[in-house]
Here is the input.
Amino acid sequence: MKILITGFAGFIGFHAAREFLRRGWEVVGIDNFNDYYSVKLKRDRAAVLEALPGFSARELDICDLEGLRGAFAAEKPDVVLNLAAQPGVRYCIDHPFVYQKTNIEGFLNVLECCRHAAKVPKLVFASSSSVYGGNKKMPFEESDKVDTPISLYAATKKANELMAHTYSHLYGMQTIGLRLFTVYGAWYRPDMALSLFADAMLHGRPIKVFNNGDMLRDFTYVDDIVDGIVRVVESNALPAYDIFNIGNHRSEKLLDVINVLANSLGVEPKMEMLPMQAGDVYATYASIEKLNKAVGYEPKTTIREGIPVFAKWYREYHGL
Here is the structure.
């Protein structure tokens, strides 16, 4: 079986590609290596994958429709895992059109390429817990209303779900969306909280703690996320269209996360307490009952097990 992974040099894409290779799949990666964050980190991830048998890559932007059509025609994938997107809740406030371009136009290109493929592939795509907006009911369930996003990023992810439903309905394509909850682990993105915290802690700077630390997040270890992705990709029992939460089913206090990270790094954290940022939400907490019933998904890694793995990688990768 062959899987085409867009955004393969990204954090989750890298881990997913490595696992599919381990399981004997042929993996084709697509990535444009943009400079939203460290291109070196993306190249380093890609280098690990390129050394593994069964992997090939194309440097390509999903916004390049003709290039994408060429890749689909040449590779004829059985499954497409779309992880390419412009991430970031805060970045979209100052850069809205980047989200329109990549997350809407780029995703439409992926849908069109799947639709017109000689052998129409199964499409599994990344949505986001951010679609739940300011929902107060916990845990978040897939049946909850998600019509009030509070960031443009969230709105684009909700749009992806609607677009996928349309293509599934009109053209009989199988499209499965996964609402990802705060993912972390080795090879982590430098713009995410744990990386920012680790960098500040190891250089003696205060970390910026928003909403005075009164925040809850469903932190999910990347290996658990990848296990869920693999189960969805390999399942033959899913409907033509569906949406699933994929998280840890635990909502952690931000200050507890900071303390586990500080202990893992062997430092005493300094904290700068700040108000809530625009576009951010107070809490995320995933109900994973639906995904558990569908494919047996059951995350196993607590923050006390996963954060030390991240901390060890962070020190080694950055030579700290």
Remarks:
- The CA atoms of residues 236 and 306 lie 31 Å apart.
